[in-house]
Every structure is written in structure tokens, then in C-alpha cells.
């Protein structure tokens, strides 16, 4: 199994390097049209990877499909080894997990928009913050998935804990209303300010800079007047100074950690196969940046999408707790029915939201409002 993980991580790193190092090397404001194109590309990559999943598990490349999966559909025995996922079942679980993670990322996007607005992050620098935020998120999720897989393998009753947690989270999403938060008073931000000085304004794309360096003399934003940054002026020459861009990155990392606590159990409700969990999670995360720029300017149009996300969490939580009974009642392809149900719930949330807001004036494009 190690070669397939190494190969997959290498593929992801190559895609990330191509994204930031080549295609988006220069900082620029990403418009809705460009973001939609990138979103379509990343979704295409995620769906195309499903072909590898199907053939890899069908022919057991690198041992795929030969590891136990508590969410078993149609177990069989091949060469004396227990096969828990053939090509069709693995593909169904991968696509279901991908869809669940992608839909949960939408809720994450709303919180990211609040963070950017609270810190006043210029639109031209938001792509860089999101890129490094996602790199950190992938590392954190890799650790959490490894721990979760080990728990499921050694403590079988943990599936009921995960399932119950998802149901409770779904109920909380329905009854708890989010409000504006003063991020400047957040404990993480206050802790960061105690550890190191924070500059008063943005300095290009820099997360850190050295007092007295050329970068420290740059203006806050393109075209802005060169004003004195009192924090830099007081700092001794060569001292490391963080910028507000770094604080925004810290908050995004914390936000994803919180959302991962929900999303990791959600994917384990679909499959206990660690590679399917990791692959569907990573592929869904890769397109989060472009999805943010495509949807951030249209957030108020999706009024009832949060209700759909809550229903999805409660559905997969229930499925995790009674998957054995569901298999006996609905047959070996009940995960395929789950995929259809999730698609239907999300589609209903989008349609109802658009109908409810169809009479509102169109929302300004992101590149206008975020300037």
C-alpha cells in the first residue's frame, strides 16, 4: 500500500506546484468567470481519479481492496485474502465521499469569507492565503485520517461515537445561528500577538518580513500611499515581524481544523478504507480555492444550503450507526442509494435557495466588492 500513497502524494504535490508555481505565479484578483473555469478543472481531476480507483480496486493494484473495511458491501475471498471493496463498490464510496467533502467545504467557504472581510485581506492576496491554508489543511487531515483509521480497526464501537457526533453536529447546524465575530479578540490571534510583533498593515504577499528590509518598506496595497508602519519603525533591525496576512492564514488553518472534526467522521461513515478516505478528502480540498472565488460573491443566494448540509451530516451519521441493517434491507448496493440521496438533498437545497432569492437584485461580482 505504501507505493500507492507515495504516488498519490507525489501527484498532489505536482498539481499544487503547477497551480501556484506556474499557473498562478503572479498575484491577481480572481474573477468569478476564471474561478468557475478552475472549479470545473479541479472537479474534472477529482472525477477522473475515479477511473484509477475503479481499476485499482478491481485488479488489486498495490494491494488495493485487500484491507478490511467495516463499511463492507459485498465481501468475497480472492487467493485466501478478504476483499472488501471491488472496483464498483470502491468507486461508489470514493464518489460519495468526494461529494460529501465537497459539500461540507461550502460551509467552510462562508467562514473563510468572514475571516477575509474581518482582516481586510485585499482580493489580490486571497489566493495565496488559501493556497498555503490548504497545504496545511492537507497535512492536518492526513494525520487525523491515520488516527481515525487506526481507531476503527482496533475499536469497532467507535463507529457509533462518530455516527452520533455527526447527528449532533447536523442538529447544531440547524438550531445554532452564526453571527459576526470579532476575530481581533480571538484567543489564537491574541496569542500570536504575544509571541511576535504584528505589522499594522499588509506588505505585499508577505506573511513575515524583517525590520529594515526592502520588503518592510513596501506600501500596504498597490497604489496606496507609503505610510509609516509604527510597529516596523519601533522594531530593532533584523527582527522578524508577522503581517496581518499571517493572522488570516492562522485563522483559516484553525477553521479547517474545526471543520475537519466534522468531515473526517463523515467520510469514515462511508468507508473504513484509509486510501479511499484520504483520496476523496484530498481531491475535494484541491478545488477549495477556486470554489471560494466562484461562490463568495453569491453566498446570500444559498439561503437554505446550510439546512441541506445539516441533513447530509445526519444522514451519513445514521448510516454509519446502522450500516449493517441497511445492507440487509436495501441490498449490497445501498451505498449507491446513499450517493443518490445526498445528491438529491444538496440539489433540493440549491433549488429552494435560488427560488427563495430569485427576486433579489444581483449580487456584485467578487472582484468589485472585495477591492
Main sheet makeup: 2 strands, antiparallel
Rounded to the nearest angstrom, the radius of gyration is: 22 Å
Low-confidence stretches: 73-83, 219-225, 362-371
Strand order of the largest sheet: 1-2
Helicity level: 55-70%
Mean pLDDT, all residues: 75
- In total, how many domains does the architecture comprise? 1
Number of extended strands:
4
In whole angstroms, how far apart are the ends?
A: 47 Å
SS class: mainly alpha
Number of helices: 14
Share of residues in strands: under 5%
Characterize the overall form.
globular
Q: What is the N-to-C succession of helices and strands?
A: HHEEHHHHEHEHHHHHHH
Characterization of the model:
With 371 residues, the protein is mainly α. It has one domain. It has helices at 2-23, 32-58, 87-119, 123-154, 158-175, 187-195, 230-234, 244-268, 274-286, 288-295, 305-321, 323-330, 334-356, 366-369; strands at residues 76-78, 81-83, 208-210, 240-242. A two-stranded antiparallel sheet has the order 1-2. A two-stranded antiparallel sheet has the order 3-4. Residues 73-83, 219-225 and 362-371 have low confidence and may be disordered.
